[in-house]
Amino acid sequence: MKVLVIGSGAREHALCHSLSSDPDVTALHCAPGNAGIAEVAELHPVDALDGAAVAGLATRLGAELVIVGPEAPLVAGVADAVREAGIPCFGPSREAARLEGSKAFAKDVMAVADVPTARSYVCTTPDEVEEALDAFGAPYVVKDDGLAAGKGVVVTDDIEAARAHANACERVVIEEFLDGPEVSLFAVTDGETVVPLQPAQDFKRALDDDKGPNTGGMGAYSPLPWADPKLVDEVMETVLQPTVDELRRRGTPFSGLLYAGLAITSRGVRVIEFNARFGDPETQVVLARLRTPLAGLLLAAATGNLGFLPPLRWSDDAAVTVVVASHNYPGTPRTGDPVLGLDEVAAQDAPNAYVLHAGTKREGDAVVSAGGRVLSVTAVGGDLTEARDRAYAALSRIRLDGSLHRTDIAARAAAEA
Ligand code: AMP
Ligand code: GLY
Q: To bridge 205 with a disulfide, which of 7, 40, 210, 252 should be the other Cys (CB 3.0-4.6 Å)?
């Protein structure tokens, strides 16, 4: 199978890493990719938001499966353009991707499908904002309605900050604060059949002990030894299947990856958000544990054949990933710094620990930083402690001036396991 992956982050590198070891994959292409992906896939320049350009590239390459990684192309309708060209595509249509593209739309779907989530108001005027903030009280949860690359949400006790964020957004969702640990659960779906993957936990804040601003995610681990073994079944029944059924009922079936961001509250599981694509960095740890070959799974979803697939197989290993970000991330990051030590990781830590690139590019013989999230170091081990030790040992060989990473990824779960 000839496969084309669209995107350039560590998620796409994780996808390509798995696909490159899948015996069914005869050719692996990625557009636009990054310096790390170039080692396992042939790169092509493309504007990932341009559906006609992506469909044209896929046609020229003879791709038999296109996988769209990030949310922005999905919300822009790139998967529709690929499918119109007659090529199976893993990723939801523009209409179905609104589940991520509009928080108000997601809230409406959940209300109709009776999916448990935080109570919320959609506000467009300062008066409505004031009323909603007053109704819920602190801590305030204020979400920009549209896509904001993980930076549109403010959770704060400071009413001035809550008000300022709300009034800076055109349309804003203000909702009840959810306590309790967060879990990311992904499901692969063809619009009808839903196949859950294994849960992971992400670390959203920039600094240790969940301090600092929200980011796209600073690290992740899987499995979750502390989670109720019935969690996946429960979320399938109360969240994933009803949501997929509701979108099909509306005539806009969701096929691709449905990502449920969940809070395990004292009153039960609640949806914090939906995403319409694999999460980053959770994908790095979930795919590290998936034994079922990836291409066949995603092709089955893209062609409506998931119901025929045998149950997924998983390794008993634990996986941990730690994100290395540029100086000043998640603010305007500094780029162009050399990333050193990559060869040392390849020589000393592989195959149990490896680097997945995000914002990197090649300049001559050097790899330099090219974005806020530069790379993530992923490791597997017999348990979380071993995976964590391997990830941090490999990370210690990477040198990037001014970079930051969290030192406590999976620490608590490993200690309690
Ligand atoms: P989102 O982009 O909706 O996932 O929000 C980003 C992060 O903000 C989440 O991962 C949570 O840590 C936090 N958050 C979002 N909604 C809530 C909520 N209702 N209660 C508490 N924290 C929240
Ligand atoms: N890890 C959070 C996200 O992918 O949105």
A: 210
| Distance separating alpha carbons of residues 255 and 248, to the nearest angstrom | 10
Task: Among 1.10.1740.10, 3.40.50.10860, 3.65.10.10, 3.30.1490.20, name the CATH number for the domain at 121-175.
Answer: 3.30.1490.20
Whole-number Å distance, alpha carbon 308 to ligand 1 midpoint, is 36
Q: Which CATH class is domain 180-308?
A: alpha beta
Give 309-341 pLDDT, tens digit per residue.
Answer: 999 999 999 999 999 999 999 999 999 999 999
Pocket mutation for ligand 2, best pick of 99, 202, 286 (most atoms within 8 Å of C-beta): 202
* DSSP per-residue string spanning 325-377: E-TTTTSS-----B-B-HHHHHHHTTTTEEEEESSEEEETTEEEE-SSEEEEE
Residue 131 is encoded by which pair of tokens? 């009323």
Q: Contact 354/17 with Cβ under 8 angstroms?
A: yes
pLDDT tens digits for range 77-117: 999 999 999 999 999 999 999 999 888 899 999 999 999 99
Please say if the pLDDT value at position 150 is more than 60.
no
Pocket test for ligand 2, best of 282, 287, 323 (most atoms within 8 A of CB): 282
Q: What is the distance in A from the centroid of ligand 2 to the CA of 25?
A: 27
Ligand 1 centre and the CA of 211: distance in Å? 14
pLDDT digits (tens, 9 = 90+) for 19-29: 999 999 999 99
Two structure tokens written together for 337: 């710094």
Which CATH architecture group holds 2-90? 3-Layer(aba) Sandwich (3.40)
Tell the CATH superfamily of the 318-416 domain: Phosphoribosylglycinamide synthetase, C-terminal domain (3.90.600.10)
- The whole-angstrom separation of Cα 287 and Cα 180 is 26
Q: List, chain by chain if needed, residues with CB within 6 Å of any ligand 2 atom.
A: 150, 202, 216-217, 275, 279-280, 282
Give 188-223 pLDDT, tens digit per residue. 999 999 999 999 999 999 999 999 988 889 999 999
Number of residues written out for the chain: 417
Q: What whole-number distance in Å separates Cα of residue 284 and Cα of residue 320?
A: 8
Which two structure tokens, joined as six digits, stand for 377? 């170091």
Residue ranges of the domains in the chain?
2-90, 121-175, 180-308, 318-416
Specify the pTM: 0.94
Counting from 1 in the atom list of ligand 2, the atom nearest the Cα of 202 is 1
